[in-house]
Amino acid sequence: MVKQRFDNHGGPAAPSLSAHVLLLDGGRVLMVRRAPGNAYAPGMWHASVAGKVDAGEDVVAAAVRECEEELGVRVRPSELEFAHVVHSHEDAGWVHFFFVCGSWDGAVTNREPRKHAELAWFPAHQLPRDTVGYCAQAVAHFLLGDPFSQHRTPTPFPARHPDRAGRTVGHTGVVTTPGEDE
């Protein structure tokens, strides 16, 4: 009886969780170009780091793990700043958590060359046209101070943190709001 109560009776599966980290440096964001042989978004630019949250893992631990696995950099959880969440309805659905980070240990290197064709730094306000849609959307909403959006669906409410609107990435990689000194 209890099992039936919690069974979704063949309904849609719960969305998967992913952790993304945008490395910031000198007013720029690191992006990775997906390798041509990738099944998902071949040849397109994507967030610095991205990966599925493993069973039993929290989203911050996944973000830290993915930084080491994909770029060879060590990030402390305290160095991650929550940036944005995108809910995507593709497949069974995804909830993408984005963090920004301006401080890490180690040199940025492409540790997954079969997955990433190249790494490059871009101004946060000028991402390449061939950036994966939900990644570009997350960066744009982060810079506007909006913590949540739905991919390919208008967000039905204004920014939750209007005091963050107009954010920029300063010359040190630190996120600033209008009127703050860098």
Automatic annotation (TrEMBL):
Where the record annotates domain Nudix hydrolase, the positions are 14-144
Q: Tell me the cofactors it needs.
A: Mg(2+)
Query: Does the record's keyword annotation contain Hydrolase?
Result: yes
- Asked if Kinase is a keyword of the record, the answer is no
Matching entries from PROSITE patterns are given as: NUDIX (PS51462)
Q: Which SUPFAM superfamilies match?
A: Nudix
Cite the record's Low complexity compositional bias ranges. Answer: 167-182
Q: What name appears for this protein in its UniProt entry?
A: NUDIX hydrolase
Q: Which organism is it from?
A: Nocardiopsis dassonvillei (strain ATCC 23218 / DSM 43111 / CIP 107115 / JCM 7437 / KCTC 9190 / NBRC 14626 / NCTC 10488 / NRRL B-5397 / IMRU 509) (Actinomadura dassonvillei)
